[in-house]
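INFO batch 0412 | record 1 of 1 | parsing
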Amino acid sequence: MKGIITSLLLALSLHAAAQKLPAIDKSPMDMSYYPAGYPVLKIQNKTTEPLAMRLIYSRPQLNGRKVFGDLQKLGEVWRLGANEATEIEFFKDVTINNKKIKKGRYTLYCIPYADKWTLMVNKDTDVWGAFKYDASKDVVRLDVPAAKNDSTEVMTMLFEKSLTGANLLIYWDNVKANLPIAFK
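INFO prediction complete | emitting tokens
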């Protein structure tokens, strides 16, 4: 009996190995933490403050394209990245635009304009793109300036400490935007 089970397991593993693996994604998924580098600091026993937020997003690349106004139409809802909609998790209650948001997982969306971005924190999670975006599930919506910046080839989002909490800095193409998040 043991030999039959071993043969069956070997056959299953060979079948799995023969399956074609998916291609490497052109917009790899990345993660940002506040405080920055939290997992590494934690294993090194160097944390100075508790984990407050984590952002998971896919990082599109310019590849010679013009993004805002061309690839991403101005005035249309965008998933704020590529592939799955960008997801933010708060590990404690926060405040955005004077609106209290309970700890938990949310999706970030954006409507880019030439001079500002409308950023939305939405209750609907685990979604691909912005195809089923539902404004009635927005927890908060606010306009932030869209400042001109040096060109950034790969979309990048990271947290920066502020006096009241942290700012989510968003860089892509020749634009920089900033989402202030308070937790103090």
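INFO post-check: Residues 174 and 181 are 23 Å apart (CA to CA).
INFO record closed
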